[in-house]
Amino acid sequence: YTRQRRDFGRPCAFSDRGAEVTVDIPPDPALAAAFMLQDPVDSAVQHCCVMAAHEVNTERVEVKSQGMNHVEGGWPKQIDPFNTEQTTRLREEAERDESYIRATLRLGSLVEHCVRQNNAIDIYEEYFEEEEEDEEEDEPPSAQTINVLRDPNMVKRSATHLSWHPNTGKSLAVAYSSLNFQDNRKEMSLDSYIWDLENPYKPDLILKPSSPLVTLEYNPKEWNLLLGGCYNGQMAYWDTRKGALPVEVSPVELSHRDPVYGALWLPSRTGTECFSASTDGQVLWWDIRKLSEPTETLVLDITQEGQLSNALGAMSLDLAPTTPAKFLVGTEQGSIIACNRDAKARSERITCTYRGHVRAVYAVARNPLLPKVFLSVGDWTARIWSEEILDSSIMVTKCHIPYLMDGCWSPVKPAMFFTARSDGTLDIWDFLFHQKSPSLSIKVCNEPLLSLRPHDNGYVIGCGSKLGTVTLLEISSGLCTLRKNEKSMASMMFEREARREKIVQDKQRELQLRERA
């Protein structure tokens, strides 16, 4: 805000001179009775003219974010960038120019000097890592709410699934649906939303499916593509560049018969393959270039007969990051099924079954840093399993009073995981330090928490509730910083517990054989 000098009036000239009395008012005793003693006394004097806010402040600029698809540029007007002959001819002429050759030789020596400097000296070297680690250890675990995203509709639905944007992390896709049986409330919206965290008051993009979305996932390769699993069993995908409507939807007769509780992208060359699981007992593989029918089908029949009537309903799904053909399915009957898509025979695709829960397995997740270990959440406990031990879990949390509704690993620390409870509490467990109680418990809301998703940096975690409120929490640095030798210590702990469990099982088998004898 600037003003010119002439707007302030004539300049003042000051000089030194002696003091003189201009007015002398003697005290009046009659006025002393009306005098009110006040301490302290504050008075404000404004010598300039009072101006309104619109007169002082500059005009407010409305900012709008708008994308631009840059294909080709920098060519002269007479050159067609899509004509390879013209572009090649212009490039060869420029490379033969003497000024281009001189500039390249001069810049090449400078770049070579900088590269050699970087190879000689590590400019990013940390000199005081140990002292920083000691300070972080002393910091008590804590978390604070940094953002709240609320369902803008009057009729509230549940936030059933969250997915972070794989590149920037500033966008969050949320699937909204009501999982109550035959919930036919009037004016209940079918929409799901993509939120921009810099503008949390209204959705950045509205997704309009034909049926409410139960799950929603960003494509890790093509960031503009989203995969959605609907409540009526259909599969759909969106391209954010093309608007709110889905690009293609699978036909009802060839889709799932129940809600799609799990849908994940496969790490393929094209980046267009995915698979889904539902409580109808099927796992279907898809290619979004042709959603008219699934490419493969697997029936979750543990008797290896392939009968849909004997199949177990899928409630959760997880994919092995190192071997995409292997995946885990958590069922509503309480068991976890390990599958292998590349098995030679169709009957061998179901490799083994893990049993430990008495209610539905709402979440199953492999450890991102130790892939042989995976987490399952169901009934009142969260369990840690090893692939080698089939009969029982190697570690388990205490039995809670409220149900556990979701869980996931920390993307940074190998022994830390999060669990969501039906009383609205988020528990942060670190089994490397505390195994009987969580390292931190946070009361996020009063309604049940149904979905969790941490950001890839480990600092922020999103919690979706039954009333559609998504709360973003920022956890302290001690809970999301990998300490020295922590990964090896966690690996040794899980291996030790697996050996102990194996010894216990062998002892039980020996006792059973003795009893039979």
Named CATH architecture = 7 Propeller
Largest sheet: 4 strands, antiparallel
Give the overall pLDDT as a whole number: 87
Helical proportion, percent range: 10-25%
Oligomer kind: single chain
Helix/strand-derived category reads alpha+beta
Number of strands: 28
| Proportion of residues in extended strands | 25-35%
GO biological process, one term: outer dynein arm assembly
InterPro entries: Dynein_IC, WD40/YVTN_repeat-like_dom_sf, WD40_repeat_dom_sf, WD40_rpt
Family: Belongs to the dynein intermediate chain family.
Main location: cytoplasm
Describe this protein with a few key phrases.
28 strands; 517 residues; dynein; 4-stranded antiparallel β-sheet; cytoplasm; 30% strand; alpha+beta; cell projection; WD40/YVTN_repeat-like_dom_sf; single chain
Question: What's the layout of helices and strands?
Answer:
Layout: H1 53-56, H2 84-96, H3 98-120, H4 129-138, E1 143-149, E2 158-164, E3 171-177, E4 192-196, E5 205-207, E6 213-218, E7 225-230, E8 235-239, E9 248-249, E10 260-265, E11 273-278, E12 282-287, E13 296-299, E14 314-319, E15 326-331, E16 335-340, E17 350-355, E18 361-366, E19 373-378, E20 381-386, E21 395-396, E22 404-409, E23 416-421, E24 425-430, E25 440-443, E26 449-454, E27 460-465, E28 470-475, H5 486-516
Antiparallel strand pairs: 1-28, 2-3, 3-4, 4-5, 6-7, 7-8, 8-9, 10-11, 11-12, 12-13, 14-15, 15-16, 16-17, 18-19, 19-20, 20-21, 22-23, 23-24, 24-25, 26-27, 27-28
Keywords: Cell projection, Cilium, Cytoplasm, Cytoskeleton, Dynein, Microtubule, Motor protein, Repeat, WD repeat
Organism: Acanthisitta chloris (rifleman)
GO cellular component, one term: outer dynein arm
